[in-house]
Design a protein that fits this description.
The protein folds into 2 domains: 2-103 and 282-299, ornithine cyclodeaminase, domain 1, CATH 3.30.1780.10; 105-279, NAD(P)-binding Rossmann-like Domain (Rossmann fold), CATH 3.40.50.720. The protein contains 10 helices and 14 strands. The chain has helices spanning 6-12, 15-30, 100-118, 133-142, 158-168, 176-180, 235-241, 243-248, 256-260, 281-299; strands at residues 2-4, 40-44, 49-58, 61-70, 79-87, 93-98, 125-129, 150-154, 171-172, 185-188, 207-210, 229-232, 252-255, 273-276. It has an 8-stranded parallel beta sheet. Helix 4 (133-142) links the parallel strand 7 and strand 8.
Length: 300
């Protein structure tokens, strides 16, 4: 059985292929074609860490991702993972692969799918709260679906924000509010336990991709921000794993996959739209299958 390290994954995984794969995975999940339970989480309090187990099944493939989240890591990535792909027909293990890059890229690709669907067609101003791995992947992915002529970045660490701005042609914002005000698309990718994005800052018609706070004890949006139309990957997961949803009591308008499948439509509103992204096993499976198929093609 092959093991594909991050270098091998990076050689075959491209956003051009990943975005349509994520779109189909979201549709498959919301229409019941892809099956997955809620992820299991084991906390490791001594290290302030988490181990997550995320299985999913789709057609001829089963996948399970083992992911660790160690937010205190300095020299290592905070998120690390391994994905195992199986044959659904025989149960045979097919391939194992490093899941860190897959997690990074599929998260941004899902946000890009949501942005293509939900952001205003002429969205031009992108605000990024955070300057790490996910900030970088989101800029790359979202630039594939909208032509932003202004990218703003805010980070708790000024040095990191300056470095990011230099790499991606962005301008730094002195505060989170300065980044968010009048932005068409707001991406929050900062791990936080207290709300970072406030509803009073959001422009009418804006799209917020809230990616940073995952868990029933973490929030990145205040109650006012949660007064927009709320979209999620999975209702069940959001009601169990998102403090933004649980504590605000905000109703979930739809799953993104339902909109993509044409099963429902968002009502017209003068408010904003919030895509609360938590990550689901269905998109991990789709990304891992794509990697495996592309890798096999390179060896044919």
């Amino acid at each position: 059985m092959d093991f594909l390290n991050e270098e091998k994954v990076r050689a075959v995984l491209r956003y051009e292929d990943l975005l349509p794969a994520m779109e189909q995975a979201l549709i498959g999940f919301s229409t019941g074609k892809i099956r997955q339970p809620l992820r299991s989480m084991m906390r490791l309090p001594e290290q302030d860490g988490i181990l997550g187990l995320m299985p999913a099944a789709d057609g001829d493939f089963i996948a399970v991702k083992l992911v660790t989240v160690y937010e205190r890591n300095v020299t290592e990535h905070t998120h690390q993972a391994v994905i195992q792909l199986f044959s659904a027909r025989t149960g045979e293990p097919l391939v194992a692969m490093d899941g860190r890059l897959i997690t990074e890229m599929r998260t941004a690709a899902v946000s890009a799918v949501a942005t293509r669907l939900l952001a205003r067609r002429h969205a031009r101003v992108l605000a990024i709260l955070g300057s790490g791995v996910q900030a970088r992947s989101h800029v790359r992915a979202l630039r594939m679906v909208r032509e932003f002529n202004e990218v703003r970045v805010w980070s708790r660490t000024t040095e990191h924000a300056n470095r990011f701005a230099g790499e991606y042609g962005a301008q730094t914002a002195a505060t989170a509010e300065a980044a968010v005000r009048n932005a068409d698309v707001v991406v929050s990718v900062t791990s936080t336990h207290v709300p970072l994005v406030r509803g009073e800052w959001l422009a009418k018609g804006a799209l917020v991709c809230a990616v940073g706070a995952v868990g029933p004890d973490k929030r990145e949006l205040d109650d006012a921000a949660m007064q927009g139309q709320i979209l999620v990957e999975s209702r069940e997961a959001a009601m169990r794993e998102s403090a933004d949803v649980i504590e605000s009591g905000a109703p979930i308008a739809a799953e993104v996959g339902e909109l993509l499948a044409g099963e429902t439509k968002l009502p017209r509103t003068d408010s904003w739209v919030v895509f609360k992204s938590l990550g689901i096993g269905a998109t991990d499976l789709a990304a891992a299958r794509l990697v495996w198929q592309q890798y096999q093609a390179t060896r044919a």
